[in-house]
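Title: Comparing notes on inverse folding

I've been comparing how different people in this forum approach sequence design from structure. To keep things fair, I'm posting one structure and asking everyone to reply with a full sequence. Here's the target:
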């Protein structure tokens, strides 16, 4: 979704509300995360005293595989983000909108991928798999952990 922002950069007090759903089919190709549905997005782009900001919240569900027990599960995420937008420049602190255009899909995708956890556990106290027999230690006590102590 491309946002045309020329009026927002030129008129102080101008505001644009955003409410949409974004689909990220390309994530399956990356193989990192698999979204269970679209990303729900709600926010605003506004010009306050000549400073243009993008503020939005997003919610989505991701299919995961636990890093310890290899169990498949889904987890809901809710995040909020804020960015200052500029027309030109090369500063990492701002989002540059070449030709007064912002690729919202790219921004949201980058924000989400930088925020999602790198270690995925089905639950905080996941015991994982037995290193000897491969049993799921969340479901059974195979006895090997006591024998190795």
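Reply #1:
Here's my take.
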């Amino acid at each position: 979704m491309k946002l045309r922002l020329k009026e927002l950069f030129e008129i102080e007090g101008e505001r644009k509300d955003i409410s949409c759903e974004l689909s990220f089919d390309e994530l399956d190709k990356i193989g990192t995360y698999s979204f269970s549905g679209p990303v729900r997005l709600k926010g605003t782009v506004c010009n306050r005293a000549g400073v243009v900001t993008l503020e939005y919240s997003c919610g989505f569900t991701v299919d995961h595989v636990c890093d310890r027990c290899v169990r498949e599960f889904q987890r809901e995420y809710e995040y909020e983000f804020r960015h200052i937008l500029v027309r030109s420049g090369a500063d990492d602190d701002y989002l540059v909108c070449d030709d007064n255009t912002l690729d919202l899909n790219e921004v949201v995708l980058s924000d989400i991928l930088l925020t999602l956890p790198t270690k995925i556990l089905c639950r905080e106290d996941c015991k994982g798999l037995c290193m000897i027999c491969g049993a799921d230690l969340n479901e059974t006590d195979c006895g090997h952990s006591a024998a190795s102590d």
